[in-house]
Write a structure and sequence with these properties.
- The protein is α+β, with helices and mostly antiparallel strands.
- The chain has a single domain, classed as 2,3-Dihydroxybiphenyl 1,2-Dioxygenase, domain 1 (Roll), CATH 3.10.180.
- It is built from two helices and eight strands; from the N terminus they run βαββββαβββ.
- It has an eight-stranded mixed sheet with strand order 2-3-4-1-5-8-7-6, covered by helices on one side.
- β7 (about 105-110) and β8 (about 115-125) form a beta hairpin.
- The longest helix has 12 residues, at about 15-30.
Amino acid sequence: MQPPGAIGWFDLTVADAPAVRDFYAAVVGWTPAAVPMGGYEDYTMTPPGGDSPVAGICHARGVNAGLPACWLMYITVADIEAAAAEAQKRGGTLLMGAQSMGGTGRFCVIRDPAGACCALFEPAS
């Protein structure tokens, strides 16, 4: 489990996930693995010689429908509600409220006062 403050994951949400999946597989050598999403598949990407995926390539559908097409880092926090509230208190914007990420935990998406976006992730206990 990643400690609070650690960067734990990167996702890229795009309209054509298979094309972008193939782009990164060819350009950087990542190996994709399909993740069933109920009617379509997103992908985890594992580096050459790696045992664990380091990123995801996702369709701009479902909970990801409103996300910008950019690499979105996930920063681990101890308490998602407290972190989201603090972000807003300090001039940030909550773009997507806390949502379940299956059994792994919960996440939300914020924009900082400078306009950069990231996700906050609270691991399941």
